[in-house]
Design a protein that fits this description.
zinc-finger; 12% strand; histone H3K4 trimethyltransferase activity; EC 2.1.1.354; mainly alpha; binds zinc ion; 429 residues; Beta-clip-like; Annexin V, domain 1; methyltransferase; [histone H3]-lysine(4) N-trimethyltransferase
């Protein structure tokens, strides 16, 4: 397959990628294996460190006791990459360095064996570190990570950092934090971090032309709308369910640039995001960080209680906040998640249905998050034997997934199977 992407210098943005011919919505533009990657600490016991699939029980590396694998085949396949890291992990046991330190170490090991590298549109040496854009606090954080990295590598090869030409650990870690991608599973939950050098050329747009998905640790870049020859190809670095100011703050803090995209200059979605009476949605906005901690800790009862009291306060005199309000939507989503985890299917479905209208408004282009939300609702409808509704929702999900995931993706096959099941059950009635 001829590459339809080429590197170019984009005025005002630096390096970028553009199409060198016409691209159609749904086309797979690029598939990439990581230069280096690692499983996130939070799921290191349930995700295979070789193929990145999720399992309840995994085989453990008998030496470092950190790396876990599906089976001996996965373990053998990973050994050439894990071998040096294994000694480092063992030397720090029971401490485990942060994801960025483990990833940086794996990048160093990789750069020491240039023979194994596949050609890229963009080399790691060219990656930007944005060190001079960083504030004091961030630099301090990096220098702590750098001490950790050196301690971590000490056992394996004390002078390893000197062996990689022109790298000091701080700029290496800065490059890693600015350029690594979150590897997510089919439900879009984070399972790892990885560096895909050519893909680091992609610039951000709050309404991008492409999306990135993963199958295991293989990255797939797909067009979500038609792209003209020489048009820049973009992705969104952040979630889109945020008002303009919040998106811009996040982009500045994390990626060090001020977004000038079309959506940011018109801020056209902001009135919808802020709809309703401000005094009524402010408590929802303020509660979100606290609610997200409850979600992370799996404190579902408490989460559901807090969400439901925010969404339907007793007394009735409180001014309404429409479902489309972005903070109300976030709280509804959290309530939806809590109900699923508490197996309260009917209530879950009621919350899920409330999110679908707003999702349609906020995702005018095909987006994986929208498809996943439809899938979750459809599964509940199917389970509760609302078969007509379920097949309708599955079809809506399919219309998005054929573009964002493609027909070969395992999740698309799952969806088609579910739809067939649903239709067969309807026939039996
Ligand atoms: Zn595996
Ligand atoms: Zn090991
Ligand atoms: Zn923007």
């Amino acid at each position: 397959m001829a590459l339809k992407l080429e590197r170019f210098v984009c005025p005002g943005k630096g390096n970028g990628l553009r199409a060198n011919q016409r691209v159609l919505a749904g086309e797979l533009l690029y598939t990439a294996e990581p230069l280096a990657c690692c499983v996130s600490s939070q799921c290191r016991n349930v995700v295979c460190h070789s193929c990145f699939s999720r399992h309840e029980t995994l085989l453990r590396c008998s030496q470092c006791k950190v790396a876990r694998y599906c089976d001996v085949t996965c373990q053998k396949r990973a050994w050439s990459i894990h071998k040096r890291e294994c000694k480092c992990l063992l030397s720090l046991h029971p401490r485990i360095p942060t994801d960025s330190v483990r990833l940086a170490a794996r990048i160093i090991f990789r750069l020491l064996c240039p023979s194994q590298m596949t050609p890229q549109l963009y080399s790691f040496e060219e990656h930007e570190s944005h060190l001079c854009d960083m504030g004091e606090e961030k630099r301090e954080g990096l220098s702590q990570l750098s001490s950790m990295l050196q301690l971590y590598l000490k056992q394996e090869q004390p002078d390893i950092i000197q062996k990689v030409p022109s790298f000091d650990p701080i700029s290496l870690l800065a490059k890693v934090t600015c350029n690594c991608f979150t590897i997510s599973d089919a439900e879009l939950q984070e399972i790892g971090v990885g560096l895909y050098p050519s893909m680091s050329l992609l610039n951000h747009d709050c309404r991008p032309s492409c999306v990135m998905l993963f199958q295991g640790k293989t990255l797939q870049l797909r067009a979500i709308r038609d792209i003209q020859p020489t048009e820049e190809v973009t992705i969104s670095y952040i979630g889109v369910l945020l008002p303009t100011r919040e998106r811009q703050t996040q982009l500045m803090e994390q990626y060090h640039f001020s977004c000038q995209c079309g959506l940011c200059s018109t801020a056209e979605l902001d009135p919808l995001m802020f709809c309703g009476v401000k005094e009524a949605w402010t408590p929802m906005k303020e509660a979100i960080p606290r609610l997200e901690i409850l979600q992370t800790n799996g404190n579902w009862e408490e989460l559901l209680q807090e969400c439901s009291s925010l969404l339907a306060p007793v007394g009735g005199a409180v001014p309404a906040v429409p479902d489309s309000n972005v903070y109300r939507l976030r709280v509804t989503d959290l309530a939806f998640d809590a109900c699923i985890n508490l197996a309260r299917w009917e209530t879950a479905l009621a919350y899920g249905l409330k999110t679908l209208g707003p999702y349609r408004q906020y995702y005018p282009d095909p987006h994986p998050a929208h498809a996943i939300q439809l899938m979750r609702v459809a599964k509940l409808q199917h389970f509760l034997v609302h078969l007509e509704d379920a097949q309708h929702t599955l079809r809506l999900a399919y219309d998005i997934m054929k573009i964002t995931h493609g027909n070969e993706h395992s999740l698309t096959s799952d969806l088609i199977r579910k739809l067939e099941e649903c239709l067969a059950e309807m026939d039996c009635k």
